[in-house]
Design brief:
Blueprint: E1 2-5, H1 9-15, H2 19-25, E2 32-35, E3 49-52, H3 59-63, E4 71-72, H4 80-83, H5 89-97, H6 112-115, E5 127-131, H7 158-168, E6 173-177, E7 189-191, H8 197-206, E8 209-213, H9 216-223, E9 229-232, H10 237-240, E10 246-249, H11 281-284, H12 287-294
């Protein structure tokens, strides 16, 4: 039984929710996983073999040619339930895999050595983990020169991010997770360089408070059952979130512009600055209200 999971780290973390169900659905078959982030699946006892998308030598010969094989390579983002925003990402996978949806949550087994990665994130004060930006989004095909500092569909506006820092920096050591080229905040430790997925998981586990966006860290927090604040703009918790979290939604835009580049989704996530329906930050969030929702 081959399951193909491609996409970003957060999507792969969400996929961990179904590994046990898959093995129980197909107990007499070897469970072969092909994925884009192998590290988070390697300790999973329900999977027989894990392959990265770029390490598939002799795969057809070993697992498909003249074999009794079942292959699941369908894309959950292209399912009706996802496009219409009526089902969670994990539920759409359940439909593909013919598994009953029981509100399964991500789970990432961690070995002893990986547990010690928490020591990397020890600081003098409690850690507030603030993720303001997610994903390497580019203006065109030359990413080294055209990194977007802000992408409105997922990123927290800089004014709100700095207000969050101002509220908490006296009591917390704030680690600011952003992409390279993202905007700069004062009074934070900036994390915009590459670390392993398990180091990121250890960072989540080390934090005492979390203010996140719809990206990999909110999925990791769910896998650790750590309640987090998640701020939503162009995506929504119905499709990608968890009821465990304190989900804070942006204001509905008053005037939607022509969504000229949007096909099966309302907002195209790549180079769509022209589709932003807001003209200033106060139309996106009531900043004092958000700060109040975040608590102490």
């Amino acid at each position: 039984m081959i399951w193909h999971v491609q996409g970003g780290l957060g999507k792969n973390v969400a996929a961990t929710a179904l590994c046990q169900d898959i093995k129980e659905k197909y107990p007499d078959r070897k469970f072969i996983l092909v994925c884009s982030w192998p590290e988070i699946f390697l300790n999973n006892s329900y999977i027989d073999k894990v392959y990265g998308l770029h390490n598939l030598s002799y795969f057809y010969e070993n697992y498909i040619e003249n074999k009794d094989v079942i292959i699941f390579k369908q894309e959950p983002y292209e399912q009706t339930g996802h496009i219409t925003k009526k089902k969670h990402l994990i539920e759409n996978w359940c439909d593909i895999l013919n598994i009953s949806y029981q509100n399964q949550q991500p789970t990432i087994p961690i070995n002893y050595s990986q547990q010690q990665l928490i020591l990397k994130w020890k600081r003098d004060k409690p850690i507030l983990l603030l993720q303001t930006n997610g994903g390497p989004l580019f203006l065109n095909s030359n990413p080294t020169e055209n990194i977007l500092p802000y992408h409105w569909t997922r990123d927290i506006p800089q004014e709100l991010s700095q207000a969050i820092v101002s509220k908490y920096f006296n009591n917390y050591h704030i680690i600011h997770v952003t992409r390279q080229g993202g905007y700069t905040l004062e009074n934070v430790e900036r994390l915009d360089y590459e670390v392993s997925s398990m180091e990121l998981l250890a960072l989540v586990a080390s934090s005492q408070k979390r203010i996140l966006i719809d990206s990999c860290l909110q999925h990791m927090a769910a896998s650790l059952s750590l309640i987090s604040n998640v701020i939503w703009i162009g995506t929504n918790p119905t499709s990608f979130g968890y009821s465990l979290h304190n989900n804070i939604l942006s204001k509905q835009p008053k005037n939607l512009h022509q969504l000229i580049n949007s096909y099966l989704f309302d907002y195209n996530f790549s180079n769509n600055t022209h589709e932003c329906p807001y003209t200033n930050v106060t139309e996106i969030f009531d900043i004092p209200q958000v700060l109040n929702h975040l608590g102490n």
